Amino acid sequence: MDYSTDVVVAGGGPAGLMTGLLLARAGVEVIVLEKHEDFLRDFRGDTIHPATQHLLGRIGLIEEFLARNHSDTPRITLSWQGEEMTLAEFTHLRTSRATMTFMPQWDFLDLLASAAAELPTFRLMRSTRVDSLLRAGRRVSGVSATGPDGPVRIRARLVIGADGRDSTVRELAGLTPQGRAAAMDVLWFRLPKEADRDYAAIQAGAGMIITLDRGAFLQVAHVIPAGDWAGTEGDMVQLRERIATINPRMGRAVEKLQPSDIHLLRVRLERLRRWYTDGLLCIGDAAHAMSPAGGVGVNLAIQDAVAAARLLAPVLRSRAPRPSDLRRVQRRRSLPARLTQRVQRMLQPALLASRDARAPMPWSLRQLRHHPQLARLTGRVVGIGFRPEYEAPEPIR
Ligand SMILES: Cc1cc2nc3c(=O)[nH]c(=O)nc-3n(C[C@H](O)[C@H](O)[C@H](O)COP(=O)(O)OP(=O)(O)OC[C@H]3O[C@@H](n4cnc5c(N)ncnc54)[C@H](O)[C@@H]3O)c2cc1C
């Protein structure tokens, strides 16, 4: 099948769906291609930041958002070898909702996709994987993809690569991210709810675990030094010992886990020098793969989407964007991505230090313990970020 549209977006994650929704509201024709059939993947982050919720209020989606199953966390707490402290406080933020909210990412994506589906200018093609770029001379002029009914070709004024940290579109365009491997990896596994009752979101001691309540089960992230996990029986033994030391109730539940229950996230901190080429723009993790440290990747992806839609919608309604139009998006968004990655890199030693039970509390945590008001600053950095984007393009009525 052949299609022609204003914008084709590769990837129906937070960046791709928010860009699609905002552009379609602004009267730009958009097709979003998502390789999966649904959004039901649990290898995802669940944090919806105060800044994202403020934006949802501005675009009239906050009530539908709050109608879905969610839990609010006005502050993130850490238990360091049993000593509790507040890592990030959100209650003072001047956003419409001063709280971090946890919602399974598939519900959040479903909210965006459902809102977009009401617009005549929006189309989401699921189970459709982008596999090559179309070109007109040197300019990218669309994509070819494989959908449930076979090959699809879509010509467009602009291709947006929002296909995540292993972006196919980025590679096809010859854009290579730069960066160093992160010092940490993350093990990601589920535990039954009764494995814990009253936990701090982050628990440290013989390592660090971050727990997300996903309703029917607990999703646990355990930070380990990069390259430390091969999934051997020896690795499993060490994992069980560490979790049991951090939290004995969880330790008992971990006994039942098999290596195949554990997903390894190889953390990468990298970004593109140039986010665009003629006819194509990368945003979100495709432009800057974030570490899960601080749980800020979704917020950054959303903010890229807002800036891209605001800066490009007026252009897209009348013509194909020029590289100079795409450069404006990168100029707007690269500083927040760089600063956030710098903070994430600084956090790594503190995240890893807790593995040695005799290790002193890292300097950054000691500062938070002595100056609890600093948690308001970390709350701002995590909850809002360095350059919040609240101005969506005006909708066409
Ligand atoms: C285990 C884990 C935990 C995390 N925890 C958090 C957290 O708590 N908070 C937080 O803010 N961030 C977290 N993150 C990071 C966060 O999920 C990402 O930064 C964010 O999802 C980036 O959004 P995105 O839209 O740019 O990319 P993605 O969310 O990766 O979305 C890309 C989409 O593109 C699709 N796709 C890929 N290739 C193709 C193709 N060729 N054709 C069509 N579709 C394609 C994928 O299926 C996917 O749906 C976590 C990440 C992981 C892996």
Short précis:
By secondary structure, the chain is α+β, with helices and mostly antiparallel strands. It is built from eleven helices and 19 strands.
Describe the model:
The structure is a single chain. By secondary structure, the protein is an alpha+beta fold. It has a domain at 2-73 and 100-178 and 269-354: FAD/NAD(P)-binding domain (3-Layer(bba) Sandwich). It is 34% helix and 29% strand. It contains 11 helices and 19 strands. It has helices spanning 14-25, 50-58, 62-67, 105-117, 168-172, 233-246, 248-254, 297-316, 323-353, 363-370, 374-383; strands at residues 2-10, 30-33, 47-48, 71-73, 75-80, 83-89, 100-102, 122-125, 129-136, 139-147, 150-161, 178-192, 202-204, 208-213, 217-225, 263-271, 276-277, 280-282, 288-289. The strands form 3 sheets. Strands 1, 2, 8, 9, 10, 11, 17 and 18 form an 8-stranded mixed beta sheet that branches. The chain has an 8-stranded mixed beta sheet with strand order 6-5-13-14-15-12-16-19. Strands 3-7-4 form a 3-stranded antiparallel beta sheet. β17 (276-277) and β18 (280-282) form a beta hairpin. The longest helix has 31 residues, at 323-353. The protein is globular and about 60 Å long. Bound molecules: flavin-adenine dinucleotide.
Keywords:
8-stranded mixed β-sheet; binds flavin-adenine dinucleotide; globular; FAD/NAD(P)-binding domain; 19 strands; 397 residues; alpha+beta; 34% helix
